[in-house]
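Hi P.,

Sorry for the delay on this. The queue was packed all week, but I finally got your sequence through. Input first:
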Amino acid sequence: MTYDELHLFLHLSRSLHFGRTSRECHVSPSALSRTIQRLESEVGRPLFVRDRRSVELAPAGEALKLHAAETLSRWQALRTRLSDTSERLTGTIGIFASVTACQSFLPDALASFRRRHPDIHIRLETGYATDALAMLSRGAVDVAVAALPSRTPPGLVSRTLLVTPLVFVAPASDCEVSRLVEERTIAWERVPMVLPSTGPGRVGAERFFRRRRVKPTIYGELPGNEAILSLVSLGCGVGVVPKVVIEKSPLRAQVRGLDSESDLGDLGVGVCAEKSKLRNAVVRAFFGSLEQGAQA
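Then the structure:
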């Protein structure tokens, strides 16, 4: 089995979707199927359990997944060491971030890293911020941009990139929701709320209402800040988002922050990785560039 075959297998073992792996790895569906068949022939066991609706790893697939991850990691480390004679690192780093992070503070951090290490390929994946730590735990990426808890979980290392206040956000248009929050004393129990489904924003909102002994009217619970702003801009309710999200959003002219009511706390956003990943020179260089950038 070759490194390319192991790479394809490892991607499929994480996506569990032949079509997605085919697209993202730029191989034809037939070539991907042939690769898996060759690996199954070498292993002597089925690697996947397949039917028309789902794909799951077979026990032999679980074992090969660990072997493939370790083998490719060692190969990447060897390539890095061999290229070290010129003190120019090469390789690839997988980074997961939300669309908001990509549109706001992440480009500065990546630009600094690129200046220091122009030969490293950056593989950037986007999605809901709430999925960041899950992407790390299943090994889909090397580092993730995520909301940082008050204490970093065991086994992870993190670096703070910014701290931004959590704020209520209301429609900018003249609508029923806008009129409710323009009252001198806001009757919060009457205001429809569009809240984060999890995370610091949800915790801050629940603490806010608990202090006021108010049972909020929930219009919607969403995992993404951009989706919250979309519903708020339509006049569906008042949302809770980090202030930086409003400042960088394409919808910023259609919403407004309620700073006078923003005792929701702050949100720390940073880069996280498993501590074991710091053995990889590329990941170590990325964290080093963040520290150097902060000191500059």
